[in-house]
Amino acid sequence: MKTKTFHMMRHGEPEIAGLLLGITDMASMAVGNCACVARAEELEISELISSDLARATVPAQEIAVRHNAPLKIDARWRELDFGAWDGMSPAIVDASALHAFWDDPTANPPPKGESWSVLSARVEAALLDISHGTLVVAHAGSIRAALCHLLGLSYRQAWAFHLPYAALVSLKIWTGQDVPTAQITGLRT
User: Fold this and answer.
1) What mean pLDDT is reported for the chain?
2) For FRET with 78, which of 7, 51, 84, 92 sits at 20 to 30 Å CA-CA?
3) Strand partners, 181
4) Are 125 and 99 in contact (CB under 8 A)?
5) Is 23 helix (H, G, I), strand (E, B) or coil?
């Protein structure tokens, strides 16, 4: 059985934190980008993959330059599309609809938004392109979807992980099986 190690990093803090930022393309603050670059400093990186949103691509570009590693932009690593709620403060979204979404995001997606199962399917497909030594710079939702798939976690279990801005999750994956087997080898927050 072969193994490969890869890493997933959440982007830095956006210019306005606390919003339902899905596909809204808001940049991270400079300090957030610096936090991502510093967190990646000790990693051995063969390539980078980034969501196509600026809050992920900007730090990924800086990390790629520092590590002299190629960077691929992959929209499959985007955050969940919050549809009509995208870019809004949770405080102004209908509380019962938001509660139903957090309780079961597959059955209760945001209006005109994406369900958890759709996010999970695109992230699962993106995981097939991961090589040994890859660093993925993405979002809390897409990272949690990857953890669900790789570790066999439920949606609720994936939310038990605290993933602040610039958090780094390192994993070892055993390949050559029908179902991926993985282990978290590091979590830096």
Assistant:
1) 94
2) 92
3) 174
4) no
5) coil
Terminal-to-terminal C-alpha distance of the chain: 31
The CA-based angle 26-168-188, given to 5 degrees, is 125
pLDDT tens track for 128-186: 999 999 999 999 999 999 999 999 999 999 988 899 999 999 999 987 766 668 899 99
Two tokens at 107?
């059955």
Place of tokens 């699962």: 124
- Residue 20: what are its φ and ψ, rounded to 5°? -80, 80
Q: CA 144 to CA 36: how far, in whole Å?
A: 18
Closest alpha carbon to 156 in 78, 82, 101, 103 = 103
CA angle 82/6/26 to nearest 5° reads 30
Total residues found in the chain within this entry? 189
pLDDT in tens, 34-79: 999 999 999 999 999 999 999 999 999 999 999 999 999 999 999 9
Tokens matching residue 123: 């992230």
pLDDT in tens, 155-165: 999 988 899 99
State how far the Cα of 157 lies from the Cα of 8, in Å rounded to an integer. Answer: 18
CA distances from 56 to 6, 97, 107, 125, 143 (A): 17, 28, 28, 19, 12
Cα-only R_g, the chain:
16
Q: Are 46 and 69 in contact (CB under 8 A)?
A: yes
